[in-house]
Queue: 2 jobs
Job 1
Amino acid sequence: MAGQWSGAGATRSRQTGRPAAAALALLTLLTCCVRCAEPTGIKPSNIILILADDQDVELGGMTPMKKTKALIGDAGATFVNAFTVTPLCCPSRSSILTGQYPHNHEVRNNSLSGNCSSSLWQKGPESEAFPIYLNKQKYQTFFAGKYLNQYGKKDGGDVSHVPPGWDQWHALVGNSQYYNYTLSVNGKEEKHGDSYEKDYFTDLITNRSLHFLDDRSPQHPFFLMLSPPAPHSPWTAAPQYQKEFNTVKAPRDGSFDKPGKDKHWLLRQPVNPMPNSSLNFLDDAFRKRWQTLLSVDDMVETLLKKLESIKELNNTYIFYTSDNGYHTGSSLKHRPCSHHSGHLRGQPVCREHGRPVLPPPDGSLSA
Ligand SMILES: [Ca+2]
């Protein structure tokens, strides 16, 4: 991640467009959360990492998340020029977990043959991922949500495979879903249907994290990693949000529906100009993405209220970020995976309530 630092904790800033490792920078911050407290002998800070799926910044992906911006970004810091290591779910998530670039952890794409949650990954990089370090420091660790795209599949160790370092494990089998999915709950299969109250995945992640906080041991710090499906397809919003943003359309500025005749072969593939059916699809997808994020915004608010009620808010770092960006209509219609800046950029925000957020050494987040 390369970045210009902004927000309450900002002391210096630097403009740079050089993509570097968001994952490494995030790990540095996470590690510092632990190490800063070690010499004093006091209980280390708690850490919460919320990882959205395909949430862009260049299309205004944070716009619907007013509570998250106020409660985390405005109360802490926003990294306004941040880049993921690669714009694809599984390699990016593997980097976040290990701090390694894809050429080192060797997860090349979202398939098993591309090393996504493969046995090679499980025996190698996953056995050295950062939750193991936190667990050794007596952190109570909790995961809920989408892990890696091939996680839980039969050829990837099935649901019985629980990565090391996690005390509580509620991981989605496969790729993002909102209903009708399967979880591995501490290595046991748990199937879900389509009842909003029982099954809506973003809310289930929130509710289970609240239970974990109720059951935790107050003597030790905790680490929560919450990985909601939003705003990834199939873009299924909660019932109360399905009519929101009904006049919003995908942005028409920048490279929207521009011909790519003189560009890379990939950019030359879409039909140009786009037919009305494509434009309608993109506008619909854009609205639905924002609608799904409203439940994530609720998640952030609910969590912070919970932290306040259990008197842990003043000792908790909260990080919010995405595994990769996205685009709708900018030369490539709708996909997350190319190396154009819209797909690489997310906008991480973090907060440590009660103390200044630690600034990076030179105001950037270069790895
Ligand atoms: Ca993703």
Note: The two ends are 7 Å apart (CA to CA).
Job 2
Amino acid sequence: MTEELLLTGNLQEASKKAIQWLINRKPIKNLIDWGISFSLWPPHLTTSCCGTEFGAFAAARFDAERFGVLPFSSARQTNLLVIEGTLTRKMARAAKIVYDQMPEPKWVIAMGACSLEGGIFWNSYNTVLPSEIGIPVDIYAPGCPTRPEALARAIITLQKRIRSNQTVKAKSA
Ligand code: SF4
């Protein structure tokens, strides 16, 4: 069904409504989603030893930038949180603050057995899972550690989901 555009209110409100309507048209939305899928910027946040694999993924051999993934220092300019392995209670607080600072739309990849189900720290008193602190995970990349190739696969899968509007947030919206 085609969504109708009804322009009411003052000029500013009407123009905002018109821009939003135009952005949500399929060809333009597809183009925006395509652009976003190749502009995934994760913040620098290393939670555990899987972080070294993420480092390898970002370095010359695997070259994360060719996937459009550019690690960035400010959380407010990022859109992809990568939970790199174990999340201790202390780091969980930092991860949640970073996640909350990131603007929408944003996505989460959890890598390593530790972020899936606890891994070798599954019964530890001081580790938590991303879901336990309100961080919704879009893609899980298993392994201990998760190899850079597996992370590349997770990125490609996320990109496909963004382009087809099938991420966690798209489903819950
Ligand atoms: S999955 Fe393995 S490599 Fe990754 S954080 Fe856990 S123990 Fe470390």
Note: Residues 32 and 130 are 28 Å apart (CA to CA).
